[in-house]
Amino acid sequence: MRELVLFISRSLVDHPDQVEVIEVESERGLILQVKVAPEDVGKVIGKQGRIARAIRSIVKAASSREPRRIMVDILSD
Q1: pTM to 2 decimals?
Q2: pLDDT, tens digit, 9 for 90 and up, residues 58-67
Q3: DSSP secondary structure string, 10-69?
Q4: Is 47:7 a contact under the CB 8 Å cutoff?
Q5: What is the CA 64 to chain-centroid distance, rounded?
Q6: For residue 75, what is the enclosing H or E element?
Q7: In this structure, how many other beta carbons lie within 10 angstroms of the beta carbon of residue 21?
Q8: Which residues pair with 29 in a beta bridge?
């Protein structure tokens, strides 16, 4: 799942080499934290959060057979 989010995020930004996806285990499930360059945060979130919502929908559909919940967080500095 990490590779899917990494591929999507790198496709959206101007600085794909600065994209990082960190996996964090929590009691609620797996959290994928997406870090991008400060000037690319808006491109990953999109207007009114539409792109972020679309990324979360894709991850939810792709992980439907996983036993644990997978969440996507977009980190900004």
Answers
A1: 0.89
A2: 999 999 998 9
A3: HHH-S-GGG-EEEEEEETTEEEEEEE--GGGHHHHH-GGGHHHHHHHHHHHHHTTTSSS-
A4: no
A5: 16
A6: strand 70-75
A7: 20
A8: 26
Tokens of 52: 């972020």
Nearest to 69 by CA among 35, 26, 34: 26
Q: How many angstroms separate the first and last alpha carbons of the chain?
A: 24
Residue numbers of the chain with a pLDDT score lower than 70: 77
d(CA 71, CA 50): 16
Q: Which residues of 54-71 are buried (b: 16+ CB within 10 A; e: fewer)?
A: ebbeebeeebeeeeeebb
What domains can be seen in the chain, in order of their start residue? 2-75 (3.30.300.20)
Taking the mean position of all CA atoms in its chain, how far away is CA 6?
A: 7
**Residue 71 contacts residue 32 (beta carbons within 8 Å):** yes
